Amino acid sequence: MKIQDLLQKSSILIDLKSTEKDQVLRQTAKFMASLYGLDNGEQISRLILERESDMSTGIGYGIAIPHARITGIDRLYMVAARSVNGIEFGAIDDQPVHLIFMLISPANTSTEHTQILSSLSSIMAYEDVREKLFSAETVEQFLDIIKKSEEKYIE
C-alpha cells in the first residue's frame, strides 16, 4: 500500500488556522470522520489524543504523524494538514510542526499501518520534499508532490 492510495484532494487541508495542538488534533480527527463517513469521530479523536499524550508524534523537521489503531473500521484512512504558522507539538527536535499526516487503521492491522508510517518518515526525511510541501499553493500541488516523492524515494 502507498501513501498516494490513501490521500486524495479532498483529504488535504493546506491552511490550518489553529496553533493549539489538541484543538488541531480534534479538528483533524473530526474532519477525517466526516470526510470518510465514519461514525466514530469522538473515538478517533480520543485515541489520537491518548496516543499523543503517551509520546509526541512530532518526528522532527516540522512533521507530525499522529496515528492510532481503531476497532470497528475496515481499512486505513489518512488525512494531511498544513499549518503555515506552525504548531507547538513537543516534537523530538523542539521545532513547531507545519505538516500533519493523520493515519488510522483497523486494530488488527499492523503491516500496512507500519508500512505507511515508514514510507512517510522516509520521504519526509528529504528537505526538498518538505520545502515543496510547505510552499504548495493548492491541494493538487500538495498531492502531486506526495505522489512524485513516493515514486522517487520509495521502492
Write up what this structure looks like.
The protein has one domain: Mannitol-specific EII, Chain A. It is 46% helix and 21% strand. The protein is built from six helices and six strands. Strands 1, 2, 3, 4, 5 and 6 form a six-stranded mixed sheet that branches. Helix 2 packs antiparallel against helix 3. The longest helix is centred in the first third of the chain and has 16 residues. The N and C termini lie close together (11 Å).
CATH topology: Mannitol-specific EII, Chain A
**How much beta, percentage-wise?**
15-25%
Number of domains: 1
Number of strands: 6
Mean pLDDT: 93
Helices and strands, in N-to-C order? Answer: HEHHEEEEEHHH
Our measurement of the CA-to-CA distance between the termini, rounded to an integer number of angstroms, reads 11 Å
- CATH-assigned homologous superfamily: Mannitol-specific EII, Chain A
